[in-house]
Amino acid sequence: MITRRRLLGVAGASGMLATAPALFDVAFAADGYINITAGPSKTKLINADTADSALWLYDNSTPGPEIRATIGDRIKVRLINNLEEPTSIHWHGLRIANEMDGVSGLTQEPVMPGEQFEYNFVVPDAGTFWYHAHNKSWNQVARGLYGPLIVDEQKPTFDKDHDLTIVIDDWRVKNDGSFDIESLGNLMDWSHGGRLGNWLTVNGESRPTLELKRGEAYRLRLINAANARILDLDPNRFGAKVLAYDGQPLEDVTAPLYAPMLLGPAQRLDLVVIPEENFALEELSGDRPFEFAYFQVKDGAGTTEPVRYPRPNPLPEPELDKAKVFEIDMTGGAMGRFTETVYKGQVLSNEDMRRTGQIWAFNGVANLADDPFFSVQQGETVVLAVKNDTAFAHAMHVHGHHFRVIERSGATVDDDKPWRDTFLIGPDQVVKIAFVADNPGKWLFHCHMLEHAAAGMNTWFQVG
Ligand code: C2O
Ligand code: CU
C-alpha cells in the first residue's frame, strides 16, 4: 500500500496554502467539435522544485480538460494524436453507440501518430464519468492520458460553485520527484497488484486545499484514475453521504455507510457534504491516515434551500428469472493456482507466459480470442457469476452497460444492489452482476487494474 516514508520523503512543504486547482475548460473548434490533442508534455508532478516529468497528456494538462454536457446532449470530440504511438479514447461508463466506444483493435482502428479521429455520441445518463486512452492503456493511462467527463441533470442539482470534480491519481515517481518511466511494463507489477504509485495527486496537484462555505451543501465527484490502486476512504469521517456510485445516483442517499469505503481503479464516488469545520480526504490503507486533499471551511450564507439530490437514470431493470447466466473463473498471477492457459488459440508453456506476459485468464483463456466469450440477443438479461480464484483483488469493468451487483459472497451489508460499471472483487470472492444487454456491438469485460488487463484479464462479448 502507500508507503508513507516515500510519499512524504519526496516533496518539501506541500499543499496547505495552495489554492484549489482549477480544471481546464475545453476549447471548441468552429465546427462544434472539441479538439483534444494527445501529446508529450513536461510537467512538475509534485511541486515546482522537483524534476520535470515526461508525461503524455490531453491538451498538455493533468488531468485532461473537463468535458461537461447535459443529459441527452451530443458530444463531439476530435482526437488529434501527437504521440509517438497509436491511441484512441474510451468514454468510461457512458452507454453510447459501440463504434464510439474507443477500444483500439475491437471497436475502431487505433489512431496513428499524426492522425485524427472524430467521436460523436449522445450521452444517455447524467453523472460522473471519465475518458481515457484505450490502446496499451497500462502505458498511456499511467503516463496521464485521462480526463473527467461530467454530465449534468436537465436542471443541475448543485450549482457550479458547489459541484467539485476531484480526479485522484497515484503516480510512481523517482527520488528526484519525476515520473518513473523505466518501470513501465514491469512484469512484477503485471503478475502482482498492478502498477502502484507512491505519490497521490488531486486534479494534478499535490495535496491541494479547496475552500468551502460553512453550512452549504457540496457535491464532491471523486474519480479514481489510478492504474491499479484501490483507495480506502471513509466519508463518515467528515459527515458525507453517498449520492452516486460510478455516476448512477442511489435511491436512498441517507443510508449509513460502511467503512472503509473502497474506491477501485476507474470507479467514481459522488458525495454530498455540508461542512461545519475543516476536513481532509484521507487514504486509510496505511498504518496512519494519509491526507491527500484539504478542505478549508469559511463562513458562508448557510443552506437556504433544501438540498436537491440527483434522480436515478433510466436504466433497464434486469429480469433475473429469464437471465442467461455465465460463469467466469478468474485465475493466474503470482501465488495463484496453476491452470492451463490458452492465448490466441495456443496453450501457453511457462516460457510462452514469460515471453507474452500472459499470466491471467478467464476460464483458462488469456486476453481477446477471435470468438466472443459469450453472445446474447439484444434485450436479454445477462448474469455474470464471477469467481476470483487469484490471490489479488480486481476491479472488473463492463463496457457499454451498467449492471446491478446482485450478490457478493461474504458481504455483511445489504447495500441495495447498486448500479455500477466497475466492481471490486476480493480473493476467493464470488460476485454476481446483472444487466440488460440492450446495446448492440462488441463490448469488453476486463480488469481495470490495467496491467492485469494487458496480462490476460481481458475478454469481449457480443450483443445482437
Ligand atoms: Cu475505463 Cu476498458 O476501460
Ligand atoms: Cu485485476
TrEMBL record:
Residues 49-155, 358-463 form the Plastocyanin-like domain. Keywords: Metal-binding, Oxidoreductase, Signal. This is Copper oxidase. The keyword Protease does not apply. The keyword Calcium does not apply. Gene3D superfamilies: Cupredoxins - blue copper proteins. Pfam families: Cu-oxidase_2, Cu-oxidase_3. Residues 1-29 form the signal peptide.
